[in-house]
């Protein structure tokens, strides 16, 4: 069955952040409610979609995933083109992935539209006993930079739906 004709908006969202923080699994959780513990680096697929209803409008979220370019800091401006929202993901158990968030914000400011809505995501919140980034540090950084912030687990699904829907609602509010 084809619902394409009923779609009111298509929102492009880009997911960025260091390698292995869980970007692909967050997408997979949100778009298919699936998770894979042995996921290898992303191959092929450029984006995944999920259609949701926001304030009575049918919104197709087109969520773009980096395909290993994060290792070489080679995400091109084409990747950011037309993006209305972004998720910058770090791993709460790996301090360097949080320290690099500022660089990802700079990347966005350089390549994406000024009005892009940005959400900071501290992923792998299920691994509390290995935590290397406090919630307070992340909240402070997010407030400073004007970013929304959520701690999520792609594994358990905790906060994943909430974070994506909040981002899509915010985009709807600014378009
Ligand atoms: P990407 O390189 O940022 O796309 O990272 P992936 O989505 O490929 O995930 C990297 C690894 O972390 C994989 O082994 C995933 O199974 C694992 N992973 C992703 N999200 C979570 C999570 O929320 N909790 C745990 N414990 N592992 C995760
Ligand atoms: Mg990936």
UniProtKB/TrEMBL annotation:
Organism superkingdom: Eukaryota
What GO terms are given for molecular function?
A: GTP binding; GTPase activity
Cellular component, GO, one term: endosome
Which family would the database say this protein is a member of? Belongs to the small GTPase superfamily. Rab family.
Its recorded name reads Ras-related protein RABA3
Question: From what organism does this protein derive?
Answer: Manihot esculenta (Cassava)
What's the source species' lineage?
A: Eukaryota, Viridiplantae, Streptophyta, Embryophyta, Tracheophyta
């Amino acid at each position: 069955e084809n619902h394409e004709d009923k779609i009111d908006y298509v929102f492009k969202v880009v997911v960025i952040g260091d390698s292995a923080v869980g970007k692909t699994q967050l997408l997979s959780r949100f778009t298919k409610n699936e998770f894979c513990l042995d996921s290898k680096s992303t191959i092929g697929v450029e984006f995944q979609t999920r259609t949701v209803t926001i304030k009575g409008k049918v919104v197709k979220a087109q969520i773009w995933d980096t395909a290993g370019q994060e290792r070489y800091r080679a995400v091109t401006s084409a990747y950011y083109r037309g993006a209305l929202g972004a998720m910058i993901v770090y791993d709460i158990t790996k301090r360097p992935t949080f320290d690099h968030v500022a660089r990802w914000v700079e990347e966005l400011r350089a390549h994406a539209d000024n009005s892009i809505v940005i959400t900071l995501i501290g992923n792998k919140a299920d691994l509390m006993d290995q935590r290397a980034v406090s919630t307070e540090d992340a909240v402070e950084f997010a407030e400073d930079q004007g970013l929304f912030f959520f701690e999520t687990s792609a594994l358990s699904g905790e906060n994943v739906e909430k974070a994506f829907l909040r981002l899509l609602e915010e985009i709807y509010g600014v378009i």
